[in-house]
């Protein structure tokens, strides 16, 4: 086996015409493809010598930056590396994280240092400063220093940029490799208990968002994934649900994008009870939409993630549950799955992780608790711990019975159901104020002697009005596009 050449030295091979050719990478184009220069010689030794001269001349040329004829600084290289080598392959949300680290932190602090003069000490001192006083916004809420996670992210940008500079011969070594970083810590996870899940779903049914949160707790889907679902993604016969897109807010507007990784494009099989709930939910929708969870106020639009966040907060408060993020519902699903015996590989596939190691890193505390619990069960089985003479019936009587949870019935009505007010002891008023196709809101009223009759008449009024609005829309469409 031939001796492998070191990275950055170029390559040498024998051509079919008997001559030796040496190639050296001098840079990369906008698509990330290498640009090379070559030398030719009659012997291998002569080719190696010519390649060495080419390599030295290219390194000399690169060390002098063309802009202003000034030595290449770390800041100039960071900007060039990001715009030409890094940005084209990043997602929009990831671009924002990179730009924040480069243009708001790294370049202002270290940008003026010549690239070939940047040392490990410079970077180490800078990371220490970030931990102490690196926060630029909301320091009064979160403290002066940046989190360990953010510091590690900024270091990852430095390391990648300097690795590329080393590969192109701009520096002799990567100073970022010798830095000591804050420890890698998993983000604290809050999950709902079994009792809290029951209260949560009861209250969600009352709030009109039961199906969305049930699907989340049954599959562990991310918020952007579940809001991007369309009915065509679901096979009602097999229960297979295809996850192939996600909803993100970019530049102040909602856009559909592909999932971050190939592993996130997946198919999950819904349990039969969940599939039945979705089928019943689809039949109840008055105006069919291609979206599984459509917006109640915008036509042919999905729910806004901000409104889902508000719904979650309201349901948690009224269900008397601890406050958790939407993503913690995903953690709740994963925790329950592991506790009920699902293997890590299967769970990793269902929730869309790239590998099982990612799942293990996130849920290490869960698997540790499962091992401890298993050891205790084995110990009890072997030791046959005393039962204190209590039989099964006695133990059941000793456990106090909990009163069934009664959902909070808020005064606020659901969107699109109008409003009802009591005028006096014997008169109720129902009002529905839709926006018509011409953009004008026209309220309609009905009256009754009791609330039940008023509710019924209001529902009839709403149904009739929606039919009239649909007919008006069709008439206007016919005028715009006559046959």
From TrEMBL:
Pfam families (alphabetical): Phage_int_SAM_3 (PF14659), Phage_integrase (PF00589)
SUPFAM superfamilies: DNA breaking-rejoining enzymes
GO biological process annotation, one example: DNA recombination
Recorded superkingdom: Bacteria
Gene Ontology MF terms: DNA binding
The entry's keywords: DNA integration, DNA recombination, DNA-binding
Keyword presence, Methyltransferase: no
Keyword Membrane: no
Domain called Core-binding (CB): residue spans: 72-166
All copies of domain Tyr recombinase, residue ranges: 187-376
PANTHER family: INTA PROTEIN, PHAGE INTEGRASE-RELATED
Biological role: Site-specific tyrosine recombinase, which acts by catalyzing the cutting and rejoining of the recombining DNA molecules.
Similarity field: Belongs to the 'phage' integrase family.
UniProt name for this protein: Site-specific integrase
């Amino acid at each position: 086996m031939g001796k492998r050449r070191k990275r950055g030295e170029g390559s040498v091979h024998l051509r079919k015409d008997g001559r030796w050719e040496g190639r050296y990478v001098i840079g990369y184009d906008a698509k990330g493809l290498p640009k090379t220069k070559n030398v030719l010689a009659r012997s291998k030794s002569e080719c190696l010598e010519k390649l060495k001269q080419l390599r030295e001349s290219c390194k000399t040329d690169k060390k002098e930056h063309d802009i202003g004829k000034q030595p290449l600084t770390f800041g100039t290289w960071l900007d060039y590396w990001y715009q030409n080598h890094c940005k084209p392959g990043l997602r929009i949300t990831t671009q924002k994280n990179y730009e924040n680290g480069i243009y708001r932190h790294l370049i202002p602090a270290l940008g003026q240092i010549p690239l070939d003069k940047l040392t490990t000490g410079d970077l180490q001192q800078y990371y220490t400063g970030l931990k102490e006083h690196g926060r630029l916004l909301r320091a009064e809420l979160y403290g002066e220093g940046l989190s360990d996670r953010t510091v590690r992210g900024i270091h990852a940008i430095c390391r990648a940029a300097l690795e590329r500079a080393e590969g192109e011969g701009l520096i002799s070594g990567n100073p970022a490799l010798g830095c000591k970083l804050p420890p890698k810590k998993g983000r604290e996870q809050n999950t709902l208990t079994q009792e809290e899940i029951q209260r949560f779903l009861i209250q969600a049914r009352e709030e009109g968002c039961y199906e969305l949160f049930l699907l989340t707790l049954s599959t562990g889907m991310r918020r952007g994934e579940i809001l991007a679902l369309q009915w065509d993604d679901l096979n009602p016969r097999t229960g297979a649900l295809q996850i192939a897109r996600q909803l993100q807010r970019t530049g102040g507007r909602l856009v559909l994008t592909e999932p971050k990784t190939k592993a996130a494009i997946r198919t999950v099989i819904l349990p039969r009870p969940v599939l039945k709930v979705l089928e019943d939910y689809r039949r109840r929708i008055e105006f069919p939409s291609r979206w599984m969870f459509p917006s109640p106020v915008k036509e042919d639009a999905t729910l806004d993630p901000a409104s889902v966040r508000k719904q979650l907060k309201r349901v948690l408060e009224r269900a008397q549950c601890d406050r958790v993020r939407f993503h913690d519902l995903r953690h709740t699903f994963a925790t329950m799955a592991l506790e009920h015996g699902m293997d890590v590989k299967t769970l990793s596939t269902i929730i869309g992780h790239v590998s099982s190691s990612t799942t293990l890193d996130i849920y290490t505390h869960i698997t540790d608790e499962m091992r401890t619990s298993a050891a205790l069960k084995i110990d009890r089985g072997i030791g046959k711990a005393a039962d204190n003479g209590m039989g099964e019936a006695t133990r059941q009587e000793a456990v106090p019975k909990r009163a069934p949870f009664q959902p909070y019935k808020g005064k606020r009505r659901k969107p699109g159901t109008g409003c009802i007010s009591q005028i006096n002891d014997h008169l109720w008023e129902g009002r529905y104020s839709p926006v018509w196709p011409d953009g004008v809101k026209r309220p309609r009223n009905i009256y009754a002697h009791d609330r039940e009759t008023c509710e019924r008449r209001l529902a009839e009024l709403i149904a009739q009005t929606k039919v009239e609005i649909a007919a008006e829309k069709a008439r206007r469409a016919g005028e715009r596009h006559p046959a």
